[in-house]
Amino acid sequence: MSVFRAAGVLAGVVAAWVAVRSGTGVLLAVPLLSTGIVAGVLLGELFAPRPGGAVRRASLRVRRVTDYLPPAPATVAGCASLLLLGVSTGTTSLAGHGRLLECGGAAVGPFPGAYSTVPTGAVVGGGLLLAALTLRRVTRRPWLDDDAARRRSARTVTAASGVLVSAPLAAVSVSGGWALHRLADTCGHSWWTAAGQGLLVLAALAVLALGWFGAALLIPPTAPTAAGTVPAVAAR
């Protein structure tokens, strides 16, 4: 499966490079790269060699996706997804389709309006859907009674999903927070100051999460994941 994963990474790098070169911005680059990584895992699962021989093993265990997800990373990735949706919706409602936040004759940008949040949301949504399909495939793959392998794949998908959402969350939060903080006095909106500071704090947390997920992708576990006990029967 490593060949397929390498191909997914390469496809993601190419897509990210094209996005940057075409002017759609760095905001899409990291989500596209992460989506490529997830696609590589899915391809590896789809084309994994089936066992040969006259005797095969059939598991009697009912598997669920949650059995293989790493709890803490999955929780952080889920929270980051909801926060990204909320922040993108809020900033888009202030700026509309523009790239600047304007008020009282002053303007600050770039500001995450629909020009950037809509394409980013489309890429992130597509990547998360692909991640869900991949996790389903990992869980239901019938010809490998190896829970450790399933957990490794689920760990990779979860980490890639975390990068997928935390990178745009950091970018949207820092640009939105900076603009709100700078224009708060000019526009006379006192709540903009608090909102701007809150978004800047959120951006810092998103950067930390991004580093955590990135390390999970690049650094293998220090110890092999213990495989669960899987009842099986031999069949001819």
Task: Describe it.
The chain has 236 residues and is mainly alpha-helical. It has one domain (56-235). Helices cover 68% and strands 6% of the residues. It contains 6 helices and 4 strands, in the order H-H-E-H-E-E-H-H-H-E. Strands 1-4 form a two-stranded antiparallel sheet. Helix 3 runs parallel beside helix 5 (147-187). It is elongated and about 65 Å long. The two termini are 27 Å apart. Mean pLDDT is 81; it is low at 224-236.
Key descriptive features of the protein:
236 residues; mainly alpha; two-stranded antiparallel sheet; two-stranded antiparallel ribbon; disordered C terminus
Task: Outline the secondary-structure elements.
Elements: H1 2-21, H2 29-46, E1 56-59, H3 71-95, E2 101-103, E3 106-108, H4 114-140, H5 147-187, H6 190-218, E4 232-235
Antiparallel strand pairs: 1-4, 2-3
Helix pairs in contact: 1-2, 2-4, 2-5, 3-5, 3-6, 4-5, 5-6
Short description:
By secondary structure, the protein is mainly α.
What Rg is obtained from the alpha carbons, in whole angstroms? Answer: 21 Å
Average pLDDT confidence is 81
The fraction of residues assigned to DSSP E strands is: 5-15%
Write out the strand line-up for the largest beta sheet, numbering strands in chain order. 1-4
> SS-based structural class?
mainly alpha
